[in-house]
TrEMBL record:
InterPro entries, per the entry: AAA+_ATPase (IPR003593), AAA_lid_NorR (IPR058031), CheY-like_superfamily (IPR011006), P-loop_NTPase (IPR027417), Sig_transdc_resp-reg_receiver (IPR001789), Sigma_54_int (IPR002078), Sigma_54_int_dom_ATP-bd_2 (IPR025943)
Annotated Gene3D superfamilies: 1.10.8.60, 3.40.50.2300, P-loop containing nucleotide triphosphate hydrolases
GO process terms (BP): phosphorelay signal transduction system; regulation of DNA-templated transcription
Ranges for domain Response regulatory: 3-117
Name assigned to this protein: Transcriptional regulatory protein ZraR
Signal peptide: none
PROSITE patterns referenced in this protein's UniProt entry, alphabetically: RESPONSE_REGULATORY, SIGMA54_INTERACT_2, SIGMA54_INTERACT_4
CDD domains registered for this protein in UniProt: AAA (cd00009)
Top-rank taxon: Bacteria
Length: 388
């Protein structure tokens, strides 16, 4: 059943609609004006908002405008008084789903709510399907080293345990994080990635936790942070070892209390996001140097998945080369190229300090620069020499 928020300054209207919908099995909360309602929506999500138009503090139109900006997926139904039908029609043009006229007709409410909830679930379903179409790439490899990684993914994905993914650049840490999400019960909800190294330290707090309008000079409107965007889903904190100590303290609080506060606000917001983190740094060393908080490390590393270097699983290289040739040719709409066994052997013997990303780029380069068959000479000329 759905969670519905009824906003009206007339208590009798709130009660009539509330009781009716509760009898239908829905969970109903009420607010006296737009401002109060908007604050409640900031704290917990609602499947449907039913709002009066004329109200003190913040009216229904202003509320609708704000919701379209900050909660575009929320379905809104307006309640219009005798004189405000034109305004109600305006609201529908803006994005409200429908309106109900006063005096309230019980049957009309039930039909409108049913339709509005159906629309809401269709929007969610479409998003889920869209996400499914962008399927997560396969983890290719049959070596014992990658087999252990896959086994750990299968074991821990469906738990809500926090996972720290370690390994060098380009080994596939992000891919592991995506699979942990994909194989979890949260897979129909968002997977939100944050590259902690790419965000300047003075912006990271607002990026992670959001901000209120006017919280700082460039905060021209309210914005949800990544933790809120990941509510119900997974947040992936990539390059966590590069996060400033100040930001680490804030993340620690979010993990301990499962609550966040937007910059410029003093209100706590509950968030239910599973946290995955990755790093190519040795966090124990960073702790010893005073660059990383030990308490945060222990919060993040309930499970540790180490993704091995490609040089430690060379037996996977032929499979990966074959996989990348097929994937890149299909992607570019090119006929399938082949590669000679000697060329594969040469690729297997290379150092691959950039790991799978480097191998992928090398195969892409070979497909561009070689003929339909990739030979040992092609590898020597375009990969070995190019890599010095
Ligand atoms: N086992 C694998 N099979 C197929 N493709 C893989 C595999 N592992 C990684 N890849 C591909 O290699 C590329 C690099 O992987 P990914 O971005 O996950 O690495 P990373 O460890 O997160 O890198 P960085 O530390 O630089 O962020 C991606 O295109 C990914 O899809």
């Amino acid at each position: 059943m759905a969670k519905i928020l009824v906003i009206d300054d007339e208590r009798s209207i709130r009660n009539i609609i509330g009781e009716l919908l509760e009898m239908e099995g829905h969970t109903v909360k009420t607010a006296e004006n737009g401002l109060q309602g908007y604050e409640m929506i900031g704290v917990e999500p609602f499947d449907l908002v039913i709002s009066d138009i004329k109200m003190p503090e913040m009216d229904g139109i202003e509320l609708l405008d704000k919701l379209i900006e900050t909660h575009p997926d929320t379905t809104v139904v307006m309640i219009s008084g005798h004189g405000s039908i034109d305004t109600a029609v305006e609201c529908i043009k803006k994005g409200a789903f429908d309106y109900i006229e006063k005096p309230i007709d019980m049957n009309r409410i039930l039909v409108t709510v049913k339709n509005a909830l159906e629309r809401g679930s269709l929007v969610k379903e479409t998003k889920t399907l869209r996400r499914k179409v962008h399927k997560v790439a396969e983890i290719v490899g049959e070596s014992p080293a990658i087999g252990r990684v896959k086994m750990l993914i299968d074991k821990v994905a469906s738990t809500d345990a926090r996972v720290l993914i370690t390994g060098s650049n380009g080994t596939g840490k992000e891919l592991v994080a995506r699979w942990l999400h994909e194989k979890s019960d949260r897979s129909s909800m968002p997977f939100v990635e944050v590259n902690c190294a790419a965000i300047p330290s003075e912006l990271i707090e607002s990026e992670l936790f959001g901000h209120e309008k006017g919280a700082f000079t460039s905060a021209i409107k309210q914005r949800k942070g990544k933790f809120e965007q990941a509510d119900g889903g997974t947040i992936f904190l990539d390059e966590i070892g590069d996060m400033s100590l100040a930001a680490q303290a804030k993340v620690l609080r979010a993990l301990q209390e499962r609550k966040i506060t937007r910059v410029g606000s003093d209100k706590d917001i509950n968030v239910d996001a599973r946290v995955l983190a990755a790093t190519n740094k040795n966090l124990q060393e960073e702790i010893a140097k005073g660059n990383f908080r030990e308490d945060l490390y222990h919060r993040l590393s309930v499970i540790i998945i180490h993704v091995p270097n490609l040089s430690d699983r060379r037996e996977d290289i032929p499979l990966l080369v074959d996989h990348f040739i097929r994937a890149i040719c299909a992607d570019k709409g090119k006929p399938l190229s082949t590669i000679t066994p000697e060329a594969v052997e040469a690729l297997c013997a290379m150092p691959w300090t950039g790991n799978i990303r480097e191998l992928h780029n090398a195969v892409e380069r070979l497909l561009i620069l070689s003929g339909r068959e990739i030979t040992l000479d092609d590898v020597k000329l375009n990969v070995m020499q190019a890599n010095g």
